[in-house]
Every structure is written in structure tokens, then in C-alpha cells.
Amino acid sequence: MSQPSETPPPIPHLELKARLLLLVMVVLVAGAIAYLMYARGAFERTQEVVLIADDSEGISVGMNMTFSGFAIGRVGRIELSSEGNARIIVNVPQKDAHWLRESSVFTIESGLVGGTKIRAFTGVLTDPPLPDGAERKVLRGDAAAEIPRMIASVRELVNNLGALTGSDAPLNRSLANLQLTAEKLNGPRGAIGVLLGNDADARRLSQTLERSNALLARLDTLVLKADGIAARTDGIIAHADEQVFGSNGLMPETRATVVQLNGLLAETRNSLKKVDAVLVEAQAIGANTREATTDLGALRAEVEASLRKVEHLVNEVNRKWPFARDAQIKLP
Amino acid sequence: MSLSGPAPVPPRSTPQGGSVTPDDKVPAAADPVLARFGRAGATAGAVASAGAEQLRQMTPAMFTRTPLRWLKGWWTVAQFGAQMLVLMLSPSSYRRSQHQALYYQLHAASMPLLPGFTAMSAVLSLVIIRIVVATAQSYGLSQYALDVLVRTLVLELLPLLVALYVALRFTMPAGEAVAELRERGQLQALWQAGGDPARDVLLPRVLGGVFAVVLLAALSAVMALVMTYVTLYGFTSWGLAAYTRDVGQVFNPAATVILCMKAFFFSLVVAILPLAPDPRHDGAALQRRDEINQLGRLFALILLIEVLSLVGNYY
User: How does residue A317 score in pLDDT terms, banded at 50, 70 and 90?
Assistant: First the structure.
């Protein structure tokens, strides 16, 4: 058969070149597949970390978990747990697993720009390593969620600021007063004028100060006089000391007087003993006298009886006597 | 010119595709002017360029026939594609006797394209990489530059570029050559001589187109990845682990499957559509093809596949 367009010009080493091209394509495709499998972690031995989060918003399968900015794991699966939490299963290659320890903390952060990030923090690298399949609560830091709250706070702040800086606001009036005060401070009366408010008081205070100065000067002279008096008092005290405690002072003489008094007392004691003896005797005399007195009583009774008899006799004589004197009393 | 062949319908595949049988009778085929007019009626540009005489001869019946012919044309293309796919998967297509033709078409489809395409894709990749990296850095988002680059370049732009490049440089000229063969009746002659034009003439070209698309797509993707790495990290190896990890994140299973399917369908469309019989000739009037029209159809199909892949990736 005739095929004019199917009879191409002969190409040297056509088969070799075609086989080479086929080989290149196979190598490229196979290499790309192998590289992608490696990049997807198909050849890595991994262990699992289960992160428990309130919600899995922003988390997608395949996203990285970073440690100090380096990706050390990727999300393999996201499940809903029986408690209603999101279970994020992160596959961590075993060669990177040593960065995760028992005390590691995991966070999910959502920035304003860009996707959500899962981060791991390990404070103590000497803690025991995190076991395979360990479950950890994850802390959520959501910048976007903070914005409404922040805006509410800022609005309140702005309102307060507006109230503070209004024309009739207390702060404004305080500032005006402060300005007046500053002017007064710079005025002739200065700080005293500011403190007292009016000029009369300020003048009075000045006078008071002057008087106080005069008083202080007088007090000074007074103190000097007191010093002189004190010096003289010192001399007097020294003299009195001499007089009292000196060799011819009061105290030695007093001591001699006391000695003499002691001798006098001894003599007095002897005299008293003699008096005692006299008294004893006097006592005996008294006893005798008391006896004599008892006898005297009887004697007296007898004397009285005798007298009564005499009297009776006299009376009898008088009655019987004719010259008896008129004993009668005549009344006017 | 005429496709009418021997009375018995052969059990083998036909050179033009399943819908065309040797018994087809085409009334307009006798008048080349009318045939040309019929083709021109399909496009407004052709109508505008048509002479006053042709305009006068245009009848509404021609417009009513157009959607039907359009559907029939795509049906022809689909049948041709199915025939090529069957042939591709048949071991008999790869007998030793076929090797020479296969090698020749593989070589012709890829080797002349390789230097030009490599240079072009390298320059284009470099420009896009620089633009994306500089923009990302200026916005302080350089950590997302790699993701954007891999997605735009490797997943979307480069496969599209490869498909169009191969179509323009290899399969459309090959389709032109095949149309010429059909026009001159050489395929028919081969058929009558006991050969199989579909297996011997068309399949090597289709395989060459598929091979060229896959080879160039893989090559440009690898080049883009290497250039991205070098642009981001320089000629060092310290960023390799982080780079690999980021690339791995982009190529999740869904994206990888979609990329593979896209490359496969691109290669099929690029390799089969230009070689398929022109449906606007009613399977009979094998005129010289309207290349712009052919490119439009090709581009529409490629765009459809691209849109479907985007929908799959991002919805």
C-alpha cells in the first residue's frame, strides 16, 4: 500500500529515544508519586495525640501542629466524642515525639488573618515523654472572639472619656481651677496666697510670723537668763553640800548629837528603873493606905453615930433649955 | 473524496469513527460550494465573509438542521473517542509490528516540543513565582506563598498550559494530516488493503498526544516545584523538610485524584478531538478543517474539564 504521509524520514536511534522518553515519564511520575507519599507522611512511623477541644472550628484534616514554629505533627482525624467535645487526633512522627512531654500544653489559636493554628508548648523537657494515644485538653485562644468584648469595653471607655472631657465635666472645671491656682502661685502672694485664699489672712499670717520671730528672740534671752540662774543654782547647791556634808557640816554634828542622845537615853533608862522601884514602894504604900482607908470608914461611921448622938443630945438640951433662942423665922 | 466503499460492512473499526459507514449517502457532497456554505452557516464570521450569492441561497432549513448536526457531530466524536479508548486498552494494539509507528509518534509528539515548552514553562513559572512571593512578602503573608504557588501553578495553570501547547503544536497538525489522508482516500485505501487505519494510523497519534501531555505536565510540575523551592529558600537544603510538609498539605488525596483525572481527561481531549472526523461534514464531505473552529471546540472542552476540577477542588 502506498502511504506517502506515513513514510516519515528515518530518525536515528528512534527506538532508543522513544524508550528514553518513556523512561523519563515513568521516572517523573513515579518520583512525583513517591515524593507526595513521603510528603503526606506515608513512610513515617507515627504516634497519636488526642486533643480534646470545645469545638473544632477552623481545624481541618492535614493541618500542622507546631512546636516552636516547627511542624511536628499533622491532624489525621477529627471526631465528635460522646461528651460532645471535638476529638482531634494528631499524628506525630516518632522522631519528633520527644518534644512532647507529660507536662506539654496544647493550644488552638485563631488569628485575625490566616488559618487556625495548633501549637504545643513543653516547659520541662526532662519530664517523662507523652505516651502514644494520650488525651489532652486543648486551650483555645480566639482573637476574633475577643473583638466584640473588646469593642464593648472600648465603647464604654470612650463614653467615659467623653464624659470626662465634656465642657461642663468635673475634670474640665478642675483644670480651670488648677489654672487659676497656677496663676495665683505665680502671683505676689505665691503658695501662701493659694493656701489661705484671701489677702487679709495672708497679711495676718505674715504678721503672725513676724511676732513669732520676736517671741523667739525673747525666748532666746530668757533661755540665756535661765542659764545664768542655773549656774548660780549650781554654786548654791555646792555650798549647801559643803554645809551639810562638809567636815564641819550639819551631818557630822548631827551624828555626834545622836551619840549623845544614846547616852542620855541609857541614863534615862536607869532613872526609870529607879522610878520603877519607887513606884513599887508607892504601890505598897497605896495598899496600906487602902487598908487604912477601910478602917477609916468604920471609924467615920462611928464618928458619925457619935455626932448624931451629940446632936440629939444638944437638941434635947435646947428644948429643955428655957433660954432657948427663938428659932422661928418671921416672914414679912 | 467519496467514502462509499464496498458493499459488505466490515467488522473492523472505521477510519473516521463509528458513525461513518461506507454506505452513507450525502446529498450536499456533490456540490462543494453548498458544502462549504453549509459549514459557513455554522459560524457568524463565515456568514459575514460569505458573498451575496451565498447569502441569497441560505435557507431557514439550514439553520434548523444545525442543532441536530451539532448533536450528531458530538456523537461522532464520542464514538471515535470510545473506539480509541478501546484500542488503547487492547493488547493487540501494542504488538511488535506496531512498535515502530508508536515509537515514531511518541517521539514526534514530545521531542520537538520539549525544549520550547521547557523554556516557556520555566519562564512563566518563574514570573508567577516571583509575583506571588513578592506580593505575599509585601503583605506579610509569605507563609501562604507556597500554598498559593502550588495550587495555582502545579494544580491549575501548568496542566492547562500543557494541554493547549500540545494541542497547538502536535495534535492539531496531526489532525490536519489525518484529515488530508481521509480526503485523499488513503485511509480508505489502507482499509481496503486489509489494514486497520484506526489502529495503525490514528492510535499512534492519539497515544503520542496522551504521552506528550502526561510527560510535559509531569516535567513542568516538577520544574515548578524545584523553582519554587529555590526561589523561597535559595540553593540550600535546610528548608526541604518544611517545604515537603507544606507541599504534602496541598496535595491531599482529593486534590491529587482531581489533578490526575484532570491530566488524564486533558490528554484524552487533546489527543482525540483534533483527530476525530469533523462532524460538520455529516461524515462525508471531508473538507480542509477550519482550525479556529477546531481550537474553539477543543478549548471549550478543556475549559469544561477545568471548571469541573475547580468545582471538585474548592466546593
Answer: confident
Evaluate whether B44 touches B23 at the Cβ level (below 8 Å): no
A327 — phi, psi (to 5°)?
-90, 0
Contact flag A8-B104 (C-beta cutoff 8 Å): yes
pLDDT-derived band at B239, boundaries 50, 70, 90: confident
pLDDT tens digits, B31-55? 443 344 444 444 444 444 445 555 5
Is residue A329 pLDDT above 80, yes or no? Answer: no
Which of B99, B176, B245 to probe the A interface (max A CBs under 10 A)?
A: B245
Per the CB < 8 Å rule, is A36 touching B249? no
The identity of residue B252, as a single letter, is N
Helix (H) / strand (E) element for B90: namely none
The per-residue pLDDT for range B17-30, each reduced to its tens digit, is: 443 433 333 333 33
**What is the DSSP track for B221-272?**
HHHHHHHHHHHHH-S-STTHHHHHHHHHHHS-HHHHHHHHHHHHHHHHHHHH
Poorest-confidence range of A9-13, A83-87, A300-304? Answer: A9-13
Which CA distances in Å does B101 have to A158, A278, B175, B193?
Answer: 83, 186, 16, 18
pLDDT recorded at residue B52: 56
| Element (DSSP H or E) covering residue A188 | none
Give the model's confidence band at B297: pLDDT under 50 very low, under 70 low, under 90 confident, else very high: confident
Q: Which of chain B's residues have a Cβ under 8 Å away from the Cβ of A3? A: 186, 190
Mutate to test the interface with B, among A29, A66, A90 (most CBs of B within 10 A): A29
| pLDDT tens digits, one per residue of B151-177 | 999 999 999 999 999 999 999 999 888
Given a contact cutoff of 8 angstroms between Cβ atoms, the answer to whether A51 and A118 are in contact is yes
User: Given CB atoms, is A34 within the 8 Å cutoff of chain B?
Assistant: no
Instruction: Please name the residue that has the C-alpha cell 496522551.
Output: B210
Q: Which of B106, B248, B256 is the closest to A18 by Cβ?
A: B106
Burial readout A60-87 (b: 16 or more C-beta within 10 A, e: otherwise): eeebbbebeeebbbbbbeeeeeeeebbb
Contact A71 B222 (CB under 8 A): no
- Tell me the whole-structure pTM to 2 decimals: 0.60
**Cβ–Cβ gap A64/B193 under 8 Å:** no
pLDDT of residue A271: 93
Using alpha carbons, select from A117, A109, A121, A100 the residue that is nearest to residue A47: A100
Neighbours of B213 (CB within 10 A): 29
ipTM above 0.95, yes or no: no
Centroid of chain to Cα B149: 26
CA distance B80 to B276: 6
- Compare all CA atoms of chain A with the CA of B106 and give the residue at the minimum distance: A18
CB contact at 8 A, B42 and B226: no
* Collapsed DSSP state (helix, strand, coil) of residue A37: helix
The predicted structure's pLDDT at residue B246:
87
Query: DSSP characters for A89-157?
Result: EEEEETTTGGG-BTT-EEEEEE-SSS-EEEEEE-S-TTSPBPPTTEEEEEEEEEHHHHHHHHHHHHHHH
